[in-house]
User: What shape does this take?
Amino acid sequence: MGSVQSGELPPDALLNPYQQNGAYTDCFYVDLPGVVSQAAYVEAFYTTPVFKVERLILAAFALKPSTDLQAKMLAQAQTEHYAAWSVEGRTPNQLLLCDFLGRTRSWLMTVVDDRSASPVTRLYFGSAFVPAVDRASGRASYGIAFHALQGFHRVYSRVLLKSAMSRLLSLQHG
Assistant: This one.
């Protein structure tokens, strides 16, 4: 437990249609002891110090500010908008967000395994990047920025998930 892994999307993942349509998708996960609710995970993810840096960048450059209270409201299904995203899909254990440009998706999912005396919750985080379609040629392309930042994105995704895990563990023991 505690190590962020890269893996396949679960069969019921809300991100699957993007993968099936040829978009870039990724999936990272980590296992935590105990039962973690989807709402607790979403709130923890979007209120970590690491994510707060992204929130500052979005506020400054995209004019899309956000607060911890808004993250809590998103987690509790009291809003459909958060910073640069809007809710595209939601189930009791999943959240799929679409950015305001319609090019990226962020996905969070919890799966509780309580078959043993010590339950474990798997936290998933994934993304989808939808290529832009050139109107003249009809060709789909991700662009130079996507390729240049793909390695950073993978590392950053792991850091975000690890940060959410740490926050949840501190809340469990705090």
